């Protein structure tokens, strides 16, 4: 669930740790996030994370946790940043990949994947809660690198032809 919220919604670690059940509109399938400098934004919850969220809430209710925070310890305390990092590392160790894994990497992947699949920069800016489009443009550079690699690998003008040298 934590991975789905970081990657599927593009949340910062601090935003994730402060999500409350009361921030979620189950009817509208959206979540109210309080970001940096207490800036509020509404993020739609895609189908996969939404279904996992419903299951998660049902399991959580069985533990009789008496707090509004969504992500807690079994005793109902809000999880810490270090516990969050540990959880993420454990998930990725099971997948066989731990190099450079941290919560912000999942947010970065969220933005890059949206951009790679045609989302406009302004929409990504809104989803990430960036005040400035310049901050969001960092993700464009990652994608431009990938575009350059594809170009160099596939474009005919990039290949030297012995019969038709440039």
In short:
The protein is mainly α and 166 residues long.
Please give a structural write-up.
With about 170 residues, this protein is mainly alpha-helical. It has a single domain, classed as hpI Integrase, Chain A (Orthogonal Bundle), CATH 1.10.443.10. Helices cover about 50% and strands about 5% of the residues. It has a three-stranded antiparallel sheet with strand order 1-2-3, with no helix packed on it. The protein is globular and about 65 Å long. The relative contact order is 0.13. The model has no long low-confidence stretch (mean pLDDT about 85).
SSE topology:
Blueprint: H1 2-9, H2 13-17, E1 24-25, E2 30-34, E3 40-44, H3 47-62, H4 81-94, H5 103-116, H6 121-128, H7 133-154
Antiparallel strand pairs: 1-2, 2-3
Helix pairs in contact: 1-5, 5-7, 6-7
Number of strands: 3
* CATH classification, class level: Mainly Alpha
Segments where pLDDT lies below 50 for 5+ residues?
none
Per CATH, the architecture is Orthogonal Bundle
Q: Tell me the number of structural domains.
A: 1
**Helix proportion of residues, in percent?**
40-55%
Q: Rg from C-alpha positions?
A: 20 Å
Mean pLDDT: 83
How far apart, in Å, are the first and last alpha carbons? Answer: 53 Å
| CATH topology term | hpI Integrase, Chain A
């Amino acid at each position: 669930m934590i991975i789905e919220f970081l990657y599927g919604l593009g949340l910062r670690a601090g935003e994730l740790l402060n999500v409350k059940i009361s921030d979620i509109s189950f009817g509208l399938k959206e979540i109210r996030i309080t970001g940096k400098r207490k800036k509020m934004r509404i993020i739609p919850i895609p189908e996969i994370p939404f279904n996992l969220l419903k299951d998660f809430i049902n399991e959580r209710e069985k533990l009789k946790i008496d707090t509004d925070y969504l992500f807690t310890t079994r005793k109902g305390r809000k999880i810490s940043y270090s516990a969050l990092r540990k959880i993420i590392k454990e998930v990725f160790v099971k997948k066989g990949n731990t190099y450079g894994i941290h919560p912000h990497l999942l947010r970065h992947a969220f933005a890059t994947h949206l951009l790679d699949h045609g989302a406009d920069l302004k929409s990504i800016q809104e989803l990430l809660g960036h005040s400035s489009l310049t901050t969001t443009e960092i993700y464009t550079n990652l994608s431009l690198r990938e575009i350059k690699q594809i170009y160099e690998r596939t474009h005919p003008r990039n290949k030297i032809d012995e019969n038709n040298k440039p």
